[in-house]
Amino acid sequence: MLAPAYQKLKDNLSKSIDPKRILDNPLQTLAYGTDASFYRLIPKIVILAHNETEIIEIIKHAKILDIALTFRAAGTSLSGQAITDSVLVVATHGWKNFELLENNQKIKLEPGIVGARANTFLAPHGLKIGPDPASIGAAMIGGIVANNASGMCCGTAQNSYQTIADIRIVLNDGTILDTANQDSVAAFKNNQKGLIQEIESLRDTIKNDETLYHFIKNKFKIKNTTGYSINALVDYQDPIEIIKHLMVGSEGTLAFISNVTFKTVIDEKYKSCSLIIFNTIQDACNATILLKSSPVAAVELLDRESIRSVEFDPDAPTYFKTLPESACALLVECRDNDLEVIHQKQEQIRLQIQSIPTYTDYEFTRDPKQYYFNWKARKGLLPTVGGLRKNGTSVIIEDVAFPLPQLADACLALKDLFKKYEYHDAVLFGHALEGNLHFVFSQDFSNQTEVDRYEKLMAELADLVVNQFNGSLKAEHGTGRNMAPFVEKEWGTAAYEIMKRIKNIFDPHNKINPDVLINPDPKAHLKNLKPMPESHLIVDKCMECGFCEPHCVSEGLTLSPRQRIVIAREISRLEETNEDPTRLAEIQKDVTYQLDETCATDGLCALACPVNIDTGKFVKTWRANELKSGNKKVAAYIGSHMAGTTAILRVGLKMVSFFHSIFGTKIMTALSNCSHFISFGKIPKWIPEMPKGAHKINTKN
């Protein structure tokens, strides 16, 4: 039962938005309220908004009722940015429009377009968008911009912040700002003078504080997505440009993004790479420093544990299994539109690092099989840990960044930290050229001892990154709920106060995605942890990442594969704990249609799943297990009495055909529809194409 304010919001919005897209039943709010993080909040209402007019209506009615809103696209975010216990507004279906501009030098994209899909629009022109996160096959433009996504090859030069050309946003009062439209900008400056003055005041405050000014400048010399993009206040003078860039990395806490225009970048035709093995992490990091000034497109670091995770792959070199524990690999890539130039680049790279010994000889390759394996070794690290983890545990992936000269020492310090807290499955990898390291490990949140262990790890991690190495606690994944308690630790009081003022300028009542990015609770990262109960062997390894969703034919009609697994897990949990029989009954009421009947069971989801889960196979098993006992008995009887069953069906079809010949098609159709209605759908409808009963086959001849 909805609280009065939420019920009123639903009633008010139902006048302008299709009520079928305003969801409040327990099954759908749980399914849509799940993101890729290890946090869980269940929204009171989920609204599937289809256009900007609806967004404005939602914002205005929610403001009147003092209700918080969270805007979301794909929900592939890893740190809890896309969840809420209030109202979740999903902007996916209906937000697929794009437009190529200025001779393809720019592309305007709505928030519901998957990043990889955007690149397919640009591929015929030899172009792409700058951000290239590993989740680009599932992450949507809204989230890519809101989290200032970067990736393996874009570095800091081609991330969302650097390549944004324009943005269209809706503020907390329904005001629209379209930075590509001069009339919109002029109207905004005239109607939002107070907001403009606040932005200019922040800009001047920083520029008049030389220490703070240079501190901010230095912090963004490496990848940094901790807190707001306050580099906008030092990089730009014009308040509109500042607002535009503040929206990048704001994690949905300042405004709704209706569309964004990116400056496109060249997608080189030819690519080659080499997996170079070094004797130690120190050697690999020293080579990275030298490679910084060479013509490389990407330099990815893989520690010994990362290499071990792929050493049994059929395409892996045999020497992988004999590498020393100190070994470390760099995956180095170069690109160009000219084959001769790419060979020259390869030679320059070789000369650049010739002073550093390697464990084996190495070659650059364009051979598709070897090229694919090299990148599979890098990209397969998340699923490796995810697939090997103990059932019931969560996959944690975090990313930090360090000044490049300190990368080697930071790697060793992180490894020591994992050993101290016995995270033996932790793997360390990342975008070495940017000093950006990812680490993945499994975490059990089912008991307080394990939660305490995680708390100690995070506290020491924050101290190590900030105080020991002057790094970034978040490099490209967004702050989220997991790092919000540590933002002030990294930035200090003065810069953190600037961030709090930014939030207050755009959202004075703290009703737009509250408690994300700015959160005064020092233990916020330890609350609302997502349960991961065992449900079925086929799906227990699911990380709820959402990579499957673009491949599912029923996503948008009912549930996606991720959502089906979420529901199955919750049913298992509620059956096990017996904590809320009413909620269990409400979920089970809708589960047959939502989870079972609308799943195509085609296995397409497994193609994109990092841990190769075929949710269709799981649904087939579900169907077999969840049939009511009465139906099972009927099925068993039919299976053992096929001759009698087919005889009855032949007679039935002959009788239907006989009555059709008497009544005619019109009357027969009317009678059929009436019977179907009276029986609540149990008697199937008749159609003229229904066959007559066949003659019994004589098996004696």
Automatic annotation (TrEMBL):
All copies of domain FAD-binding PCMH-type, residue ranges: 39-267
- Domain of life per record: Bacteria
Its name, as the record gives it, is: D-lactate dehydrogenase (cytochrome)
Q: Which UniProt keywords apply?
A: FAD, Flavoprotein, Oxidoreductase, Transit peptide
Family, per entry: Belongs to the FAD-binding oxidoreductase/transferase type 4 family.
Kindly give the InterPro entries that the UniProt entry links to this protein.
Answer: 4Fe4S_Fe-S-bd (IPR017896), FAD-bd_oxidored_4_C (IPR004113), FAD-bd_PCMH (IPR016166), FAD-bd_PCMH-like_sf (IPR036318), FAD-bd_PCMH_sub2 (IPR016169), FAD-linked_Oxase-like_C (IPR016164), Helical_ferredxn (IPR009051), Oxid_FAD_bind_N (IPR006094)
The Gene Ontology biological process terms listed for this entry are: lactate catabolic process
Q: Please list the GO terms describing molecular function.
A: D-lactate dehydrogenase (cytochrome) activity; D-lactate dehydrogenase (NAD+) activity; FAD binding; iron-sulfur cluster binding
| Required cofactor(s) | FAD
Which SUPFAM superfamilies is this protein grouped with?
Answer: alpha-helical ferredoxin, FAD-binding/transporter-associated domain-like, FAD-linked oxidases, C-terminal domain
EC class (word): oxidoreductase
All residue ranges annotated as the 4Fe-4S ferredoxin-type domain in the record: 533-562
Q: What is its EC number?
A: 1.1.2.4
* Organism annotation: Flavobacterium alvei
